[in-house]
Amino acid sequence: MDPDRIRPLATRQAQLVRSLLGEGVPPAGVDLHRIRVTRRQLAFKRWRMWSKAWPALSREVALEDRDALLRFLMSEPLDSSHPGLADGFRVARRLDREGRLGPAGRRELFAVQFVWRERHGSMVRRRWPRIGFSAEPDGLLIAVYAVRAWLFRLPIPRSAAQPPTPDPPEPEDRRVSPAPRSGTEYLNAV
Amino acid sequence: MIAERGRTAIGAGWRPELALVIDQNPALDFLEVTAENIDLAAVPAALQLLRDRGLPITVHGLSLSLGGTEPINRGRIERLRRLAEKLGAPLVSEHVAFVRAEGVEVGHLLPVPRTEVAMDLLAENVGTVKRIIGRPLALENIATFIEWGDGELDEPAFFCELLERTDSLLLLDVSNLYANCRNHGWDANAYLRRMPLHRLAYVHIGGGVERHGLYHDTHAHSLPEGALNLLEELCAIVRPPAVMLERDDEIDQRFDLALELARMRGAIERGEHRRNGS
User: Fold this and answer.
1) Mutate to test the interface with B, among A6, A9, A147 (most CBs of B within 10 A)
2) Structure confidence by residue, pLDDT tens digits, A113-147
3) Predicted ipTM > 0.90
4) Contacts by A137-144 with C-beta closer than 8 Å and gap 24+?
5) Which of B 116-135 lie inside 8 A of A, CB atoms?
6) Do A34 and B146 touch (CB under 8 A)?
7) How far apart (Å, rounded) are the C-alpha atoms in residues A50 and A88?
8) What is the average per-residue pLDDT within A88-107?
């Protein structure tokens, strides 16, 4: 189509998008209250998407951190290909930088980073085959990526010198035990 | 086109969280997958199994931005085409909406002003998509809080012209219609009677909730009576080839797929009785 003919429409669409992201005024004729409601809807939608893609991390996020994280996400461009994955990645890295990433979130970040990497603001799959390890206080995480990805946890027996803890008992036969279902399901479902 | 059975086919949107319950539900006649949620290189085995069992699967797109002024990304269309081919989809569907401007993604379906320029743009983009995917394309009405305020046509007139010009099918979302009627004061019955129902491919219905005086089409709540009444009204006018439940969130033990499908079927049957005068 003739660029001159669609330019006014392009300007108005861009104005609407910017106003939904909290920048500039809405286009003429569009109700400001409706813009605010849509903006709130967008924010919750992004929160839902990343929570779904990062179930362990989302359970670890403290209630009092949610507003700040939501504002942070809304200030970041949306990855249209893997929105939930990318937003969760941002949340995980931010918490990690601040030293507030919990053990489940750390494990999920390891699993995701094993298969995905960020390139120009978008998440792209890494090449396979890959194998990786991550040490945990009481075990070793082993990740394998060949077509699909698997995550295993190898428990390491505590030494006799360590004081007993109230943790649940480790598997009796000490076989490699699978990671929580959500992690592996997630890796292959995205 | 979706299921030729002489009756309205019943379907559901396939989601990974619903895979098991869908697999165990023999009442489903077809499924729909959201293209953006499927990895072309690793189509879920559960979905492949259903496909191999002969269940028709349609492909639904969210991100083409048919009403956007930026050129449509050929890669996105190509991806839709390949997925449709892989699943043997009888048709592909997308929204009359835009989702990005000046390279910025919104992650949300936004309405297109119903003007002549927007119509020409949509017609051109739809034509491009149809040529590449090589399958019938159905276009869906969206739910929106926002109206541009300077539309030259109302939505039924806009859809009539767009579908006629592009020879496309209609994917009518009765929940989106219900939401817009609630939020913009539209007359739902008049709307239904003026839509190009002779082009109806299938129907979406999903749950929602009212918050602060506005109705939100969430796909996370049970089907509201108002949307079911609209489905009944539609079935009193015409026999839809297929009707499909959309449920995206809050899929837990409280969600009963069979119950929601039964409520849909009830509305369809009530409408059919009215249409047949029985």
Assistant:
1) A9
2) 999 999 988 899 899 889 999 988 888 999 999 88
3) yes
4) A137/A103, A138/A167, A141/A107, A141/A110, A141/A111, A141/A179, A142/A176, A143/A110, A143/A111, A143/A114
5) 117-118, 120-121, 124
6) yes
7) 5
8) 93
